[in-house]
Amino acid sequence: MDELELEFELHPQLAQDCIVLGDFPLCRLLLMNDANYPWFILVPRRAGVSEIYHLSAEEQVALMRESSILAENLADTFAARKMNVASLGNMVPQLHLHHIVRYESDLAWPGPVWGKHPARAYSESEIEEIRQKLEVLMASEMTSKSS
């Protein structure tokens, strides 16, 4: 573990809004606690990073690989019509990539999900179901963690 990973702390807003699902080699995997949309977030476990270009070249490649693996698995698992993947950081400066499974039938389609509808918190059983789906599909890529 290098110094930047040792100093890593999840931004308080992400900690408040999300459920920790596990870790990839570089990123922490979060589930946005909004059951209106299957919405996941990758956060590189590096202190003081707010932009992709702040990562080393090797870490940039790792981030894109982890994002692609996650997006592909989410699209397959949740039968996505479209995967929205974005890094905005306007409200939370810590580098994080949103991975949102979209359907033509979702509440915000075809617009963005931000601020469209009040969040609906997941039940414990819904969280466990998502954990099980992702553990089976991604066991070789991530280390499971409890919330």
TrEMBL record:
One of its GO terms (molecular function) is catalytic activity. InterPro entries: HIT-like (IPR011146), HIT-like_sf (IPR036265), HIT_Hint (IPR026026). Residues 41-109 form the HIT domain. This is HIT domain-containing protein. The lineage of its organism: Bacteria, Pseudomonadati, Pseudomonadota, Gammaproteobacteria, Oceanospirillales.
